[in-house]
Amino acid sequence: NWCNQLNWAARGYATATMDARGQGGKSTDPGGVTGPTREGHIIRGLTDALNGQPEKLYYRNVFLDTAMLARVVSSFDEIDGNRLGAHGGSQGGAFALACAALADIKRITPVHPFLSDYQRVWEMDLASGAYAELKSFFRQFDPRHEQQQEIFETLGYIDIQHLMPRVKAQVLLATGLADAICPPSTVFAAYNKITSPKETVIYPDYAHEELPEFGDMLWDFMGGL
User: Fold this and answer.
1) Helices (H), ranges, 3-89
2) Helix, strand, or coil here: 108?
3) Which of 36, 43, 93, 142 has its CA 20 to 30 A from that of 23?
4) Angstrom distance (rounded) from CA 160 to CA 146
5) Can you give the pLDDT at residue 2?
């Protein structure tokens, strides 16, 4: 909803929102299917990746989409390409972090970022909801877990924690310690690998939900661009 971006326009900021390919918006996934998909994005392309083609992983290409968006935005005459910021929550939080790893982003504000430390999610027995496809993949294609190590190593191509040493942006990250969808330990698996200036805002009693007052903190933080 573009109405949610009007506050940035009122502040004099240009804003762009990425439509993740194939997830129900106008952007289709050119990877061999048409129309939207509701789930299965983590494991899409995993069989090809296990056979030596990690470039077929869905999220690998979506991460590259974030960098392409940043470069396209930077090309506009009205945009100062040296003052770009990125924000997102959950999947969008992962995208903000990936974008900062792959493009020249100055400030990012990820909120309970998704797509980090899949093996930790599995070990905590939290492969449900957004991560349920991991269990489905094992049940269907590796019921005795003979390839478990190889599978998690291959998912490392789309695990944001491995991109974090590339981040040069200043980071303000928020998360809730009661989050069972993007567990705090997976969030910190990524956060702890960031070497640029960073700060966390912790909500001990909050789960995967709106975090009160963080919107104002985000607003002030992005004012430094």
Assistant:
1) 6-10, 46-50, 58-74
2) strand
3) 142
4) 25
5) 80
Phi, psi of 212 (to 5 degrees): -60, 140
Residue 34: half-sphere exposure toward Cβ, Cα within 13 Å:
0
Q: How far is CA 68 from CA 74, 152, 186, in A?
A: 10, 27, 26
Integer Cα distance of 93 and 89 in angstroms: 4
Domain boundaries, the chain: 39-222
The tokens of 214 are what? 């963080």
Closest CA to 217 of 183, 173, 179: 173
Q: What is the mean pLDDT of each run of 10 residues along the chain (225 residues)?
A: 86 91 68 62 93 94 96 95 96 98 98 97 90 93 96 98 98 98 97 98 97 97 96
CB 171 within 8 A of CB 196: yes
Helix (H, G, I), strand (E, B) or coil at 47: helix
Q: What CA–CA distance (Å, rounded) separates 105 from 99? A: 7
| The predicted structure's pLDDT at residue 58 | 93
SS3 57: coil
Domain 39-222 has CATH 3.40.50.1820: yes
Distance CA 164, CA 95 (A): 12
Q: What is the pLDDT of residue 129?
A: 84
